[in-house]
Design goal:
single chain; 293 residues; mainly alpha; 15 helices; globular
Length: 293
């Protein structure tokens, strides 16, 4: 009959010994201000993409997910111009300042890959020496998303000349990271970003430029050369031409000014692209310029 009392005594002793306190109630997280227009559209876009994934995975299992209820809500939200931080384009005058100011081979190779190749910062930092083919003058590297992409950049002769001088000066092996730290470690994305910004700052370029300004100038010049949005899409390796359209400088489109007058940026599309290969005969100048650089 003393068993229940012993159990209660043992139970209470355990809590006193461990100084047990009941769990505190979680504080409710409240947002002090509403989400911006771009944030709302970004969140809805994630839900829309997830819905499209469900639609593809259940395609053979019935008529599930036929109508996307989020798509109409996304189009109903209009982005305000004040809510968007536009990327400035790198113009010809800024490019001339950079070329005149920099002298290190590493810096020259970086800006040429950005300016003529249209690479992203992360794509640039993970480049490896074995990604470059000196015979075909092509670069095969991991794009955004992790898949491989073969690029034939314009001014490839200049890029591979700088690469050869850079490898000889650094005495780098045939394989390994192209741009590494002093301890031969892979650079972080922030470190590579800071290196490019340091080049822009010491060249006294137009305020507000960023590493992505090279990519925007790349897209704008190629569109003015070909007048074909799909070529620009293939070169920048975008999945959707609507994304590529945002890279083209609207100021030049409205003024109808040729990039030869304002922003002479030399680019080429990816020659291994199915679209580009089938339509190469429409743009003979692109292939000719690559051999005369």
């Amino acid at each position: 009959k003393y068993l229940p009392q012993i159990f209660v005594y043992t139970f209470l002793s355990f809590f006193r010994k461990n100084k047990y306190s009941p769990p505190q109630q979680k504080k409710q997280i409240t947002r002090s201000r509403s989400l911006s227009v771009s944030s709302r559209k970004r969140h809805l876009s994630c839900i829309k993409n997830f819905f499209e994934f469900l639609k593809q995975t259940h395609e053979d299992q019935g008529k599930y997910f036929l109508i996307n209820p989020v798509k109409t809500k996304i189009h109903a939200i209009k982005l305000k111009d004040t809510d968007i931080k536009h990327t400035k384009i790198l113009e010809q005058s800024d490019w001339n300042k950079i070329i005149e100011k920099i002298y290190r081979l590493e810096e020259k190779l970086i800006v040429h890959l950005l300016y003529y190749g249209g690479l992203r910062v992360n794509e640039l930092r993970i480049l490896k020496i074995e990604n470059f083919d000196f015979k075909t003058k092509t670069i095969t590297f991991a794009r955004k998303g992790g898949y491989l992409h073969t690029l034939h950049p314009r001014r490839s002769n200049k890029i591979f000349e700088l690469l050869d001088l850079y490898l000889t000066q650094k005495r780098l092996p045939e394989k390994g990271i192209l741009f590494s730290s002093k301890r031969n470690h892979l650079l972080s994305q922030k470190t590579m970003y800071n290196r490019i910004m340091a080049i822009l700052n010491k060249s006294f370029t137009t305020p507000g430029l960023s590493p992505h300004s090279f990519r925007k100038a790349c897209a704008t010049a190629l569109y003015f050369k070909t007048k074909d949005l799909l070529f620009v899409r293939d070169y920048l390796n975008h999945h959707d031409a609507k994304v590529t359209q945002t890279y083209i400088d609207s100021r030049l489109l409205q003024s109808n000014t040729s990039p030869k007058e304002e922003t002479i940026v030399a680019v080429d599309f990816q020659k291994t692209s199915n679209y580009a290969t089938s339509n190469l005969q429409n743009y003979p100048l692109l292939e000719q310029e690559n051999t005369t650089c």
